[in-house]
Amino acid sequence: MLAGRSILVTGAGRGLGAEIARGLAGHGARLVLADIAEDEGRAAAEALGATFAPVDLADPDSIAALAATVGEATGGRLHGLVNNGAIATGIGGIPFEEIEIESWDRVQRVNVRGTW
Description:
Strand content: 15-25%
Shape: elongated
Helix content: 40-55%
Number of strands: 4
Largest sheet: 4 strands, parallel
Strand order of the largest sheet: 3-2-1-4
CATH architecture of the largest domain: 3-Layer(aba) Sandwich
Number of domains: 2
Radius of gyration: 15 Å
CATH topology of the largest domain: Rossmann fold
Distance between the termini: 27 Å
């Protein structure tokens, strides 16, 4: 179904992103996996025969570097994107008024701005 299609998966080093990547690979997709957790991301990519690119979705320069890597790995033909990269560390289960502003700002940079 996805044979020969190039797909980028962010947040692919573990959890949901890694499972999505496994599913896509099982359908024949050529993958570029990206994650801020480099060791986990590289291991996931190696296991699937995919390309790995480190990325910090809060950093526009890091996103630009990811775009360059994706372009090189796919010959400029990206067919799909799974915007899975996100953070909840330090805020899950905490009442809103107890979340530190620095944590809130980082979540917004990654989870909101980082998706585009």
